[in-house]
Amino acid sequence: MALKVMVCDDSMFVRKKMKDAVAAAGATEIIEAADGQQAIDKYKAEKPDLVFMDIIMPVKSGVEALTEIKAFDSSAKVVMASSVGTQENLKEAIMAGAYDFLQKPIANEDVAKIVSKASQ
Fold first, then answer.
1. Which is deepest, 13, 23, 32, 76, by most CB within 10 Å?
2. Domains in the chain: boundaries
């Protein structure tokens, strides 16, 4: 099955690592965004099947971007990733409609599990 995935993180290094993990998990098309506003704009233009989004980003946070994406497409599958203050962020992300949540540093097998679950 063709799977279009968007990777959104303000760190180019993290995006590269995530792209490799997502590609290894079977994604056929990968889109990148470097901040929350880019994520919203690219989601609306590209309608990816799955989104991996950092919580702490410039312009708009991951939770703000998640909220806007869910308002645009209530069936959006957005996986939030964070390394700092996770408990509070996790609650916020779940309340905003996150599909899943990953703790940084992100393990490739966790990415593979989520990609597999999302493609069913």
1. 76
2. 4-107
